[in-house]
Each structure stands twice: as C-alpha cells, then as structure tokens.
Request: fold
Amino acid sequence: MGVMKRVQLVFKAKANKALDKMEDPRETLDYSYQRQLELLTKVRRGVADVATSRKRVELQMNQLQQQANKLEDQARKALGMGREDLARAALERKASAQAQLNDLQAQYAQLQAEEEKLTVASQRLQSKVDAFRTRKETIKATYTAAEAQTRINEAFSGISEEMGDVGMAIQRAEDKTAQMQARAGAIDELMASGALDDAVGGSRRDDIQSELDMMSASSDVERELSRLKGEITASAPKQLEGGANGSNQGQPQNAQNAQEQSAPYAPPPPQAQTQAQPAGVPVSDLPAAEPQDGEES
Reply:
C-alpha cells in the first residue's frame, strides 16, 4: 500500500509539473472570463424566467379580480330582482375567486422578491465580470511584456533556446567551411605535384605520357653514349704520345696528361698533328686529319 501511495504521489507531482509547464496564464484568464460570462448569462436567463412567471401570475390575478367584480355585480342585480338564492350563489363564487386571488397575490409577491434578488445578483455579477475583464487584460498585457523582456534578456545573454540553435548552426557552418577549405587546399597541392594527373587525364593520357618518357630516356642514353665515344676517341692520340715520351718526362708529364684528360677535348689543327707525330707510331694508327679549305683531300 505504501508503494502505491508513493507511485500516485510521484505521478501527481510529474503531472502537476507538466501541466504547470504547459499552462499559459493568458489562456487560463480567458477561460475564466468565458466561464463568468456563461454564469452571467445563466443568471440573466433566470431573471427573465422569474419575470415571465411573475407576469403570468399577474395576468391570472387580473382575470380573477375581474371575475370577482363581475360576480359581485351579478349578486347585486339578483338581490334587486328578489332572487336572494342567485345572489348567494354569486357571492359564493366570488369568495372562491377571491381565495385564488389571494394565493396568486402571495405567489406574485414571492416571485417579485425573487426577481429583485436575481436582478441585484445579476448586476453585481456584471460588475464583477467587468472588473475581472479589466484585470484580465491588465494581467495579460503585463505577462506579455514580461515574457518579451525575458526573451530579450535571454537573447542578449545567449541562454535562450533560439540563440543556442543559431550558435550551433553557425558553429556547424564554420566547421564545414574550414573542412571544405582544407580539402580544396589539399586538392590544389595534389594537382600541383602531378599526383592527380593520372586520375584526371585517364588511361589514354597515361599511355602517351609513358611513350614520351621512354623517348626522352632513349634520347638521354644516346646522347650519353655519343659523349663517351667522343671522349674515348679524343683520349687515344694523347695516350700514344705519352707512351713515346716514356720515362723522359717523368712524373710531371703524367700529371699534365691527367690534367689534359680531365679537361674537355678540343681537336688540334691538322698541321700541328702532322708536326707532332710521335716517332715509331704508324701513320695509319692516327686519326686522319681533315683537309683545310683550298687543299685537296
């Protein structure tokens, strides 16, 4: 039993808190004013019903009064004609109508008092409703102003839900912008380095680039081979000349030969080659001199 009471208490507390959060004082005041108007309408309808009943009793009283007066006249005429029995019967009927008239007069007085009470109550209720309406509008205006001021203060302080959502949206937009800037910079670097050329150009561009690279490599190899052949061809006469001088020149000559080998080769003129022909070396082993202009080959 104690557990059930605690459950009911917790449920009532939660429901009260939820209702308090959902309740709007302005709506509550409007509803209360509507109920008061309905009550005032019922009171006015009651006053109208009582007044209607009073009016009906008044009409019946008038009819009975007229009937009593008529019976009295008839009794007087019957006595004038010597008919006392008829006069007595008319007076008896008048007495009965007078009794009914007295009852109706009591009811009329009671209904009239009730009507006056209801009229006073209706007037008081009308005044109360008017005062409540004025108070209601004042409270609603004050609450609306306080609510607006609260929202403005929360917006300035940044603790409102709307401003929090706006701040989160701005933060998400800044994060996405930074991410897109970083991605654009990375793509620019990859394109500048050529890492994305294959992905952008396609397989056909890859084949063309490969062929161009192979042709360039072949040209470099042929150029290097021609250079080596020229160096070997140029170094052959110097080696023969160095062998003929032998040991007469010694170490300084060897150093000079090494310096000449390291220097770029410049072929000597044909006459100098003929005059500097080393002894004991066949002419056929030396490179043939190119004919000068005007000489026969």
